Amino acid sequence: MSKVDRTRINKIINAGDVTELNSYAEELAKEFAPNSEREKKKKLTTSQIRNILDNVQRMSKEGVEKGEYELLRPKLAYVAGRSDKENYAVRDLREILDIALQNVGKDYRKFENFRNFLEAIVGYHKFYSQVKD
After folding, report:
1. DSSP one-letter code for 39
2. pLDDT, tens only, 62-104
3. Where does residue 105 fall: left (phi above 0), alpha (psi -120 to 50 degrees), or beta otherwise?
């Protein structure tokens, strides 16, 4: 069951809609956050997305304008590939972030919208997760 909503992603990345960003990020985090140790194999752990977030936060304006953010796409695929094959959360998040990155172009403002979206997902995920990792 995919949580990908291209219309919402477009509003967040291209229009900078902060209300939509908060709403969608919170919905995703609630859905992806594990509520028990048993759910860790099928949901998202913080460590699975921290490395991506760290890369995003270190990205410079020049790096975005050169298209270096495109290197995040294979990193997302790697994280999804390493996860349990039944882990829909990691696969859905990879697809959502991949679509969002495709909307960035070389526009640093759009990249900032992407970064804010990812930071919001991580923040809400940490809040809703009942499992330490």
Report:
1. G
2. 999 998 989 998 988 888 888 777 778 888 998 999 999 999 9
3. left
Close Cβ partners of 83 (under 8 Å, ≥ 6 residues apart): 48, 90, 91
Cβ neighbours, 10 Å, residue 19? 9
Q: Where are the domains of the chain?
A: 41-133
Q: Give me 88's structure tokens.
A: 């829909």
Residue 60 CA to its chain's centroid (Å)? 18
Locate 122 and state its tokens. 């991580």
Kindly report the pTM of this predicted structure.
0.91
Is the separation of the CB atoms in 32 and 130 below 8 Å? no
Closest CA to 51 of 20, 2, 97: 97
